[in-house]
Design goal:
The chain has a nine-stranded mixed sheet, sandwiched between helices. It has 417 residues and is of the alpha/beta class. The longest helix is centred in the N-terminal third of the chain and has 18 residues. The chain has three domains: 67 residues; 95 residues, Beta-Lactamase (2-Layer Sandwich); 246 residues, Rossmann fold (3-Layer(aba) Sandwich), CATH 3.40.50. It is built from 14 helices and 15 strands.
């Protein structure tokens, strides 16, 4: 009875109160009052026998569903939860303190889960259906959402939500979270200010985007910054930020605009900085050519398992450009354009750490020379399974060190020893 009543209220709200829900300045009290009025009207008119507590539970549930995120509303509000993974209506995993656990919360059925999906999609240009059964979006608060539905997900819709960590705003927050130490933080902030070209690498969920987002906050406010992303999720606080987002194909499979097209267009927009949310294809070569033409200070994210693997990935993606390039030419481009690779991993205790800060120092026998400046040395494990280690400097002075002095940055050489 309760499930049937909720479904009837949903239909009435969506059909008779669409204008109310579409208002930009709609107040929570207005929606709550409408839900309460509909529930009371149905139960009284049809003499439905339901306790006051049961009625209130339905009202509260619908308020969470319509104004928030339904059964997962509590998870979305909880600052201690960093990720919510919905594996069909009956299994919801959450990540708390870097540990993944199965929660007791469930959806009533697949229909309720799909209602949440459509609600998340409604403010965007994205869609999911049988012809386009997966997509990725960003919520208003910056959380990133990946959605995949049947038939590609035979056990029910899969929704993965990576929450935006609002408390991570300055580099000291990353130090506090043990993502890096203060020495590395000072160095990377100096690199941002000196317009060093940096690639942030790591596997999915290692915190690459968070680290880039925090470090990008040190770009001077006077610069014109252009961000290019598949799904807009970077949150920059500077005044002059231009956000570009890829466009998926329409229902006829036309109209797609990818990162490469946006990047080429961004070069005509008089950028001081270009930030690419993720390099996935031949735009890797476009970025290197742009740096050669004077667009320094570029930042980008790349999925890779190590600094060396990042070079292999860039090689492969450059060759996808269709130009007749040899590996020697690609290696020369890499060595002349990319200064630094910041590689991040999620270690065994679940924490996320910058494992390597690696400079690219020219070519040797046709191969790109990589030299670690800092690295994380895992020394063992504590009694509760936590990783015990320390960040160490290798004694290597960055070959781009003169860039700091040109930018008026006083970075003592002693931090590298």
């Amino acid at each position: 009875m309760r499930k049937d009543l909720k479904e009837r209220v949903r239909k009435i709200i969506s059909s008779d109160y669409a204008g109310l829900l579409s208002k930009k300045d709609v107040k929570d009290e207005e929606v709550a009052s409408a839900i309460r009025q509909i529930v009371n009207g149905i139960t009284e008119r049809e003499h439905i026998n339901i306790s006051q507590e049961g009625k209130q539970a339905i009202i509260d549930s619908l308020i969470d569903e319509i104004l928030g995120y339904g059964p997962i509303q509590g998870f979305m509000k909880d600052p201690g939860i960093t990720e919510v993974m919905i594996n069909g209506p009956q299994k919801i995993y959450v990540e708390r303190r870097d540990k993944m656990v199965l929660s007791d919360t469930v959806f009533e059925d697949e229909q309720q889960l799909m209602y949440l999906i459509y609600k998340m999609l409604s403010p965007t240009r994205r869609r999911v259906d049988e012809t386009n059964p997966f997509t990725e979006i960003a919520l208003k608060d910056g959380a990133r959402v990946n959605i995949i539905i049947p038939p590609l997900a035979p056990d029910g819709p899969i929704v993965t939500i990576r929450k935006y960590l609002k408390e991570l705003r300055v580099v000291e927050d990353l130090v506090r979270m043990s993502t890096m130490d203060q020495r590395m933080a000072d160095f990377l902030v100096a690199c941002i200010k000196a317009k060093v070209n940096i690639i942030f690498t790591g596997a999915t969920g290692t915190g690459k985007t968070t680290t880039l987002n925090v470090l990008s906050s040190y770009i001077p406010n006077s610069e014109r910054i252009i961000t290019i992303e598949d799904t807009a999720e970077l949150k920059l606080g500077q005044e002059h930020v231009v956000r570009l987002e890829c466009r998926p194909p329409n229902i006829e499979g036309r109209g797609e605009v990818g990162i490469r097209e946006l990047f080429k267009n961004s070069l005509r927009m008089r950028p001081d900085r270009i930030i690419i949310g993720e390099i996935r294809g031949p735009e890797a070569l476009d970025m290197m050519q742009a740096i050669c033409s004077g667009h320094s200070g570029s930042l980008a994210i790349l999925h890779a398992n190590s600094s060396r693997d990042a070079i292999s990935r860039i090689e492969m993606m450059s060759m996808l450009s269709g130009l007749p390039l040899t590996l020697e030419v690609i290696h020369r481009q890499i060595s002349e354009t990319i200064n630094l690779i910041v590689h991040q991993e999620q270690v065994l205790d679940g924490s996320r750490k910058v494992m390597q800060v690696t400079q690219i120092n020219g070519l040797k026998e046709g191969q790109v020379v990589l030299e670690d400046i800092f690295y994380y040395d895992i020394q063992g494990f504590g009694e509760q399974g936590q990783v015990v280690g320390a960040w160490k400097a290798t004694g290597t002075l960055p070959q781009f060190y003169p860039m700091f002095k040109k930018a008026g940055i006083d970075l003592p050489e002693g931090i590298f020893y």
